[in-house]
Specification:
It is built from six helices and no strands. It is mostly helical. It has one domain. Helix 3 packs across helix 6. The protein is globular and about 45 Å long. The N and C termini lie far apart (about 65 Å). Keywords: Signal. This is Rap1a immunity protein domain-containing protein.
């Protein structure tokens, strides 16, 4: 009995350590997949708005960085026809899933989105 309680406590302590850190690409993908499982009811989930806001903020940040680099005459990190690159939600999720899980866990959402944009809009150098 005591042994099973100790095992339960040890597992409950270890599980949060194994979860992807907030702000990581893996955390975003886990939350998006949870919502995908809800089907059309996902739109009513409060996490839907948070995920959309996170992705929009990261996309805006990347677009702002691109505009700043263009004004400063520095190289841009992705070469979409316009600073505001087009990336659909399913396209973004598919791009996240294409990144190996080992990298996704340690990668920020910004770095993951930038990688997806670089693959979609490569620069000729």
């Amino acid at each position: 009995m005591r042994k099973s309680i100790l095992v339960a406590v040890a597992v409950s302590i270890a599980v949060p350590v194994l979860a992807a850190p907030p702000g990581s690409a893996q955390n975003f993908l886990d939350r998006a997949n949870r919502l995908k499982g809800k089907g059309p009811f996902a739109l009513m989930d409060s996490d839907y708005g948070r995920l959309k806001a996170e992705a929009t903020a990261v996309g805006k940040s990347i677009g702002d960085e691109r505009r700043a680099a263009e004004r400063a005459g520095k190289p841009v990190l992705h070469c979409s026809p316009t600073p505001r690159a087009q990336l659909g939600s399913f396209e973004f999720i598919d791009g996240l899933e294409a990144i190996p899980a080992v990298e996704r866990v340690r990668m920020s959402l910004r770095d993951a989105m930038l990688r997806i944009l670089q693959k979609k809009y490569p620069c000729r150098r």
